[in-house]
């Protein structure tokens, strides 16, 4: 049983959840993830380790409610417990002095890059964090990312904050203007990660993306999370989750991710109330 | 009378609005607060037109058509005006996806349903396929949001049965308030608050049920965005098919349209006549009832302690063999009058002509739908089509065969259990409370190999060597019975009682407690039965 | 001699089982188990050989004649305790051991008649004890103060835990999944090994004092080195198994609908997907299933697929006699309606525009010359390609050792196949104080072999903890 120390909605539908898990916090490294079962009948679901506090023994996850399992998690409150949490899983992201590192992120990725930004900066890189959201009100972690980066650029699809476009548009602009970027890390929805690879490929900039296939055990024993990278089949849970964006078979991943679409919809199809009066999940 | 719209000469009906006349002739004037089920309101100004001789830009929904009128519906000035109005609407709606140049490509990368808690853009919206704001935005070519949208952070409303509400998507068109008033006299929801704080809510922030909501779902049906949603149907997307049929959950026999998905499962049901509400059962209970995971799917025979799945021929052969010794008045068939005419015709014929028994027992359900029967003395074998007889009385039987949709205490004692297709899964003729015939048209597939009641009995009769049961379809039986002229109940003088007062609804169907199968009903109290007086005029 | 003659006349008692038509619809056990009367009658068939061949044939050397005699006398609880002196998990072994290759395969009566049903008797005794809530805890010796870390809660690890606990050491089992049991939980289906039994066995160990730490991945949360140097463990047993699935590496293997047997079985067994939606993990419910492979895992996958409502075909590239699966399991599969496409090799999986499986291309094989293992090698028959219409393909061709511990323990010597090198008499690895056993050493094998190695390791670890010299691999 792992206690939820703090939980609140940092942006509409985006929840920051801090959980007491000393064994995970002790070993967490940027780029790794955890697998969670909210209760004993839950699915095993992966969530990126956004941040961790080794001294306090806590880990921070950033979660969007996008279906039955994340809904169950989001319905819990501070002081509640999740049944199982295992990690840190996955190969840690390579952190070294590369020069200038650009991080591109959207949705839950904005939170997920926090630990990466900090580590890259500590390794002596110039860190440019470029985060995108549909609109200004969907941005979060501004202060945290500013502290962890040399430059923070927030973009919006609707231009509501003055910087219109996707995060990768900024990356493209910088590369076009001759700015030197030695490495790009992209975390977010499949679309944004795909675009990141597309944009950097002509410039030959090494780009790593956090692939998010469906997972079952997360420890390398089932192969549910197989991804095709450079013609090779690899397991996202033990060979990834970060892979070379220029070699990923995006179409295959896009389709594999909806393998259980019918079951997922059936799981939330119910006439019963989702939550009961007096337990609203809403912005703090 | 004749008038000209966009250089076309058209004939308008007396009292018709310019908008209605145009729409009738497939001239698509953009509109938002108008709805075919509602009288004109003139709130959104989207349907503005230019009319020779009239100043400014009148709303075509509140302008009656007059002879000789000359109307222009899509000038550049009008489109600019409409776009400006829409941009104001988009201001208080998560509209960012609408102006994203990569929207189409992005949607290609999101093939599944989002099932999101909060909708923060088209990509996470349950009404992506049907949103009026989105289609208007497409039509008017909105490419920019000059004023950034504001998200009001209103808490999600997910604690009422059946209905999910995300007021952050609401554009305050007022359709929901108006249809509630139109259908029920008094609206459960209304505009609450003032100015930029205005939103739709119930007085004193009560739950929908406490505020008197009838759960007719009409507000959901008219909502142009994803703000009001049918929680069960929400994420199935645009239906693959629509079929009109009759609801048989009570004897009001409302005409309903059943929406099904690509897997031929029912996902939603609505009243065909959108000018009158139907009750919570017809509107919300059917999909969850039909798609329940404990539905009987395969014929079963008891072998020792266990029930064994067997194919139909085997089950019917076994039933035929077991019934043989009980031909005579030791046999009873128990059903209730919620069955179709065809079912009951065949049941009766089977009981008298094949089993040679006088004990064809057809129960009239009480106002709650509960059907209870006693078995006559001397009955040793019974065929039940629902949960109609007390367990203790069943203990006395030597042979019990049950055909039903769901397992029951009765089916636990049965030696043969046959799975039934019901409601929107069958064709047939239903008799309503006034004795009029209403048609059933199959809308969705029954689970597993479940079959209609009449078909099961016909095949059983065939297995027993009885002639006269080789009916190819329900239609053939209806013809034999001269049961022709069944029509959907499209017009009624008043909505059904339960549509005005959900506490008066039926609680049972075929002997099954509906609340056990439809989870939302557990949160909706059942009141004391009142005198059966329909309200609403 | 007259006694022996009389015994020969008693036929081997048949185990009452669920009829195939029933059991394809449920996940309950196939055999119902002996009644006490049947058990006593079967036990009476044992002729008490002076030099019993069954005992050495058992990988953990259970004193079979002793417990069989106790059953014959109606002393069922004593029989269970007798077995437990050597076998920590009798309810499990009685169900999953390949007795026909071990104890029963060596039974003297089995030469001319059917062997004594030793496995079924073992199962009977263990079940009897459990059903009568009569499990007793042995008296434990004084605590030695030594702490042992067991990495992996599968059959090898559980055996070591039980044995060392009973020697007075303090044992902690680290398990990566949410429940201990390893392959007993995720791999073997409910209808062959009810999970309630595995849980009862784990509970027994807890009552003995074994500490279970779940959701803990050694190799990530701690390395072996850290367990020894920083966390105060005096010895470590590595029982991490062979859970890495092998794929055919043929085109189309990433299509939606192709699963490793591990994934398929883990969904059904560990995550209870057959109870969806009561349990959240969706099962794989498809119409036409092909299972590639001929071992027990392939049979388990095929029989699970049947129960989930599919038409199932086993696709195996060699002939029937060469199938490694237990005859009993093949027989059960056949009875239940699994089809067999033998001497058939899949070459490619076919799919539609949305990456979903639509069929599998295969080629027929014929037996040619024997290979290094002595089995006749199958060779493709030219021009015999055909397409099997399926929507699901389960790849059950074997598993490789879990690489995580070797990868994170540099001094641990491994073979080129990824198995840990151990000294066969002691199971000690190249690191002093670190022992290993089970599939991580032998490659994918059986539960009882894992237990056997666990037993050997425990004996050596006990000696090591007492300060004796214990042989390492050279």
Q: Which regions of chain A are unreliable across 5 or more consecutive residues at pLDDT < 50?
A: 280-284
Compute the gyration radius of chain A: what is it? 18 Å
| Number of DSSP strand runs of chain A | 15
Q: Name the shape of chain A in a single word.
A: globular
Number of strands of chain B: 23
The amount of beta strand of chain A, in percent, is 25-35%
- CATH class group of the largest domain in chain A: Alpha Beta
N-to-C SSE string of chain A, H for helix and E for strand: EEHEEEHEEEHHEHEHEHEEEEHH
The percent of residues in helical segments of chain B reads 10-25%
CATH topology of the largest domain in chain A: Rossmann fold
Sum this structure up briefly.
With 537 residues, chain B is of the alpha/beta class.
Write the layout of secondary structure elements.
The complex is a heterotrimer of chains A (284), B (537) and C (474).
Chain A: E1 2-11, E2 14-20, H1 22-27, E3 33-37, E4 45-53, E5 58-64, H2 68-74, E6 81-82, E7 84-89, E8 100-106, H3 109-112, H4 114-122, E9 126-133, H5 142-148, E10 151-156, H6 167-176, E11 183-187, H7 190-200, E12 206-210, E13 226-229, E14 232-235, E15 242-244, H8 250-256, H9 261-268
Parallel strand pairs in A: 8-9, 8-11, 9-10, 11-12
Antiparallel strand pairs in A: 1-2, 1-6, 2-5, 3-4, 3-7, 4-5, 12-15, 13-14
Helix pairs in contact in A: 4-5, 6-7
Chain B: E1 2-5, E2 8-11, H1 18-24, E3 50-51, E4 70-72, H2 76-91, H3 103-108, H4 132-139, E5 163-165, H5 175-184, E6 189-192, E7 199-202, H6 218-222, E8 228-230, E9 241-246, E10 255-260, E11 266-271, H7 280-290, E12 300-303, E13 306-309, H8 312-323, E14 331-336, H9 341-354, E15 360-363, E16 381-384, H10 391-395, E17 399-404, H11 409-413, E18 416-421, E19 428-431, E20 437-440, E21 451-452, H12 453-463, H13 474-480, H14 497-500, E22 508-509, E23 512-513, H15 514-517
Parallel strand pairs in B: 1-4, 14-15, 14-16, 16-17, 17-18, 18-21
Antiparallel strand pairs in B: 1-2, 3-4, 5-8, 6-7, 9-10, 10-11, 12-13, 12-18, 19-20, 22-23
Chain C: H1 2-9, H2 20-23, H3 36-43, H4 54-57, H5 64-72, H6 76-84, H7 90-96, H8 103-106, H9 118-131, E1 147-151, H10 155-165, E2 170-174, H11 183-186, H12 195-208, E3 211-213, H13 224-229, E4 235-238, E5 244-245, E6 258-260, H14 261-269, E7 288-292, H15 296-307, E8 311-316, H16 327-336, E9 339-342, E10 344-351, E11 357-370, E12 376-380, E13 386-388, E14 392-395, E15 399-400, H17 404-408, E16 434-436, H18 439-442, H19 447-465
Parallel strand pairs in C: 1-2, 1-4, 2-3, 4-16, 6-14, 7-8, 7-14, 8-9
Antiparallel strand pairs in C: 5-15, 10-11, 11-12, 11-13
């Amino acid at each position: 049983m792992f206690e939820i120390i703090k939980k609140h909605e940092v942006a509409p539908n985006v929840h920051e959840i801090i959980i007491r898990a000393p064994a995970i916090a002790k070993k967490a490294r940027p780029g790794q993830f955890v697998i969670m079962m909210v209760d004993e009948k839950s699915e095993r679901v992966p969530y990126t380790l956004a941040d961790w506090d080794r001294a306090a023994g806590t880990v921070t996850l950033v979660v969007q409610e996008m279906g039955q399992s994340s809904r169950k998690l989001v319905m819990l409150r501070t002081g509640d417990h999740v049944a199982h949490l295992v990690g840190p899983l996955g190969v840690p992201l390579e952190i070294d002095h590369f020069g200038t590192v650009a991080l591109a992120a959207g949705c839950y990725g904005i939170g997920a890059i926090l630990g990466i930004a900090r580590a890259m900066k500590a390794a002596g890189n110039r860190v440019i964090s470029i985060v995108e959201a549909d609109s200004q009100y969907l941005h979060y972690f501004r202060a945290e990312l500013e502290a962890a980066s040399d430059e923070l650029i927030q973009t919006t699809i609707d231009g509501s904050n003055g910087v219109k476009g996707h995060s990768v548009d900024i990356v493209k602009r910088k590369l076009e203007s001759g700015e030197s970027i030695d490495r790009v890390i992209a975390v977010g929805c499949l679309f944004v990660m795909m675009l990141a690879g597309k944009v950097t490929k002509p410039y030959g900039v090494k780009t790593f993306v956090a692939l998010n296939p469906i997972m079952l055990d997360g420890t390398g024993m089932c192969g549910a999370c197989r991804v095709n990278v450079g013609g090779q089949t690899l397991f996202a849970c033990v060979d990834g989750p970060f892979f070379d964006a220029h070699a990923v078979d995006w179409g295959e991943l896009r389709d594999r991710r909806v393998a259980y679409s019918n079951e997922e919809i059936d799981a939330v199809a119910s006439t019963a109330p989702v939550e009961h009066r007096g337990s609203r999940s809403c912005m703090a | 009378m004749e008038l000209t719209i966009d250089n076309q000469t058209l004939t308008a009906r007396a009292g018709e609005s310019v908008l209605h006349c145009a729409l009738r002739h497939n001239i698509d004037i953009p509109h938002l607060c108008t709805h075919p089920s509602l009288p004109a309101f003139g709130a959104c100004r989207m349907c503005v037109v230019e009319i020779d001789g009239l100043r400014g830009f009148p709303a075509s929904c509140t302008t009656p058509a007059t002879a000789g009128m000359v109307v222009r519906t899509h000038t550049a000035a009008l489109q600019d005006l409409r776009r400006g109005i829409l941009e104001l609407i988009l201001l208080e709606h998560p509209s960012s996806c609408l102006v994203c140049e990569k929207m189409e490509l992005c949607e290609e990368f999101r093939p599944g349903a989002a099932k999101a808690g909060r909708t923060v853009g088209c990509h996470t919206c349950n009404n992506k396929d049907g949103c009026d704001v989105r289609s208007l935005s497409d039509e008017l070519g909105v490419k920019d949001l000059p004023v950034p949208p504001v998200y009001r952070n209103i808490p999600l409303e997910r604690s009422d049965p059946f209905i999910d509400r995300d007021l952050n998507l609401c554009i305050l068109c007022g359709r929901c308030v108006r249809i509630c008033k139109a259908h029920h006299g008094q609206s459960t929801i209304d505009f609450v608050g003032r100015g930029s704080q205005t939103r739709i809510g119930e007085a004193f922030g009560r739950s929908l049920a406490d505020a008197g909501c009838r759960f007719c779902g009409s507000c959901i049906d008219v909502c142009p965005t994803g703000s009001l949603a049918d929680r069960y149907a929400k994420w199935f997307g645009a239906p693959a098919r629509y079929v009109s049929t009759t609801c048989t959950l009570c004897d009001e026999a409302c005409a309903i349209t059943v929406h099904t998905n690509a897997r031929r499962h029912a996902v939603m049901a609505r009243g065909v006549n959108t000018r009158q509400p139907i009750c919570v059962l017809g509107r919300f209970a059917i999909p969850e009832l039909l798609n329940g995971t404990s539905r009987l799917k395969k014929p079963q025979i008891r072998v020792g302690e266990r029930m064994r799945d067997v194919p139909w021929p085997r089950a019917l052969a076994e039933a035929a063999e077991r019934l043989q010794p009980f031909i005579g008045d030791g046999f009873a068939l128990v059903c209730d009058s919620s069955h179709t005419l065809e079912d009951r015709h065949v049941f009766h014929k089977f009981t008298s002509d094949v089993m040679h028994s006088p004990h064809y027992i057809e129960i009239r359900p009480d106002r709650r739908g509960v059907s209870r029967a006693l078995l006559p003395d001397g009955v040793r074998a019974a065929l039940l089509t629902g949960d109609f007889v007390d367990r203790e009385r069943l203990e006395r039987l030597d042979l019990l065969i049950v055909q039903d949709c769901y397992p029951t205490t009765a089916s636990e004692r049965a030696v043969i259990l046959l799975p039934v297709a019901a409601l929107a899964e069958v064709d047939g003729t239903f008799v309503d409370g006034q004795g009029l015939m209403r048609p059933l048209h199959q809308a969705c597939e029954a689970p597993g190999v479940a079959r209609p009641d009449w078909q099961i009995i016909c095949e059983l009769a065939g297995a027993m060597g009885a002639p006269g049961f080789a009916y190819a379809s329900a239609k053939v039986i209806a013809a034999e019975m001269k049961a022709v002229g069944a029509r959907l109940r499209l017009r009624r003088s008043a909505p059904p009682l339960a549509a005005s007062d959900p506490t008066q609804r039926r609680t049972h169907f075929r002997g099954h407690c509906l609340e056990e199968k439809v989870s939302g009903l557990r949160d909706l109290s059942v009141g004391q039965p009142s005198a059966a007086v329909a309200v609403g005029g | 001699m007259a006694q022996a003659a009389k015994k020969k006349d008693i036929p081997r008692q048949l185990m009452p089982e669920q009829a195939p038509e029933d059991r394809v619809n449920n996940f309950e056990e196939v055999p119902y188990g002996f009644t006490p009367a049947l058990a006593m009658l079967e036990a009476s068939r044992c002729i008490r050989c002076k030099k019993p061949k069954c005992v050495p044939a058992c990988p953990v050397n259970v004193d079979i004649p002793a417990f069989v005699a106790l059953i014959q006398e109606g002393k069922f609880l004593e029989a269970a305790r007798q077995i437990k002196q050597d076998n920590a998990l009798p309810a499990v072994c009685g169900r999953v051991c390949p007795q026909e290759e071990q104890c029963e395969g060596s039974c003297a009566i089995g030469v001319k008649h059917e062997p004594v049903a030793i496995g079924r008797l073992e199962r009977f005794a263990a079940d009897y004890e459990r059903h009568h809530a009569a499990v007793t805890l042995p008296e434990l010796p004084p605590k030695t103060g030594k702490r042992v870390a067991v990495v992996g809660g599968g059959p090898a690890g559980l055996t070591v835990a039980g044995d060392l606990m009973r020697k007075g050491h303090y044992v902690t089992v680290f398990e990566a999944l949410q429940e201990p049991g390893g392959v007993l939980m995720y791999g073997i289906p409910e209808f062959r090994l009810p999970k309630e039994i595995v849980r009862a066995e784990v509970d027994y160990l807890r009552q003995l004092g074994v500490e279970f730490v779940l959701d803990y991945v050694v190799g990530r949360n701690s390395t072996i080195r850290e367990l020894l140097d920083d966390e105060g463990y005096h010895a470590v047993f590595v029982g991490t198994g062979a859970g890495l699935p092998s794929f055919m590496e043929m085109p189309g293997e990433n299509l939606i609908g192709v699963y490793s047997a591990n994934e398929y079985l883990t969904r059904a067994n560990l995550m209870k997907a057959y109870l969806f939606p009561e349990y959240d993990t969706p099962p794989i419910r498809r119409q036409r299933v092909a299972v590639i492979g001929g071992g027990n895992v392939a049979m388990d996958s095929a029989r699970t697929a049947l129960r989930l409502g599919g038409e199932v075909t086993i696709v195996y590239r060699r002939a029937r006699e060469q199938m490694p699966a237990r005859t009993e399991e093949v027989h059960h599969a056949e009875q239940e309606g699994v089809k067999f496409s033998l001497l058939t090799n899949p070459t490619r999986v076919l799919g539609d525009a949305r990456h979903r499986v639509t069929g599998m291309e295969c080629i027929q094989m014929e037996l040619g010359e024997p290979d290094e293992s002595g089995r006749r090698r199958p060779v493709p028959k030219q021009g015999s390609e055909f397409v099997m219409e399926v929507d699901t393909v389960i790849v059950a061709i074997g598993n490789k050792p879990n690489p995580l511990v070797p990868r994170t323990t540099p001094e641990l010597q491994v073979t080129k196949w990824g198995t840990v090198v151990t000294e066969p008499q002691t199971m000690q690895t190249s690191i002093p104080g670190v022992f290993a056993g089970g599939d991580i050493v032998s490659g994918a094998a059986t539960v009882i072999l894992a237990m056997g190695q666990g037993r050997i390791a425990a004996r050596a670890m006990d000696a090591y903890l007492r300060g004796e010299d214990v042989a390492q691999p050279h």
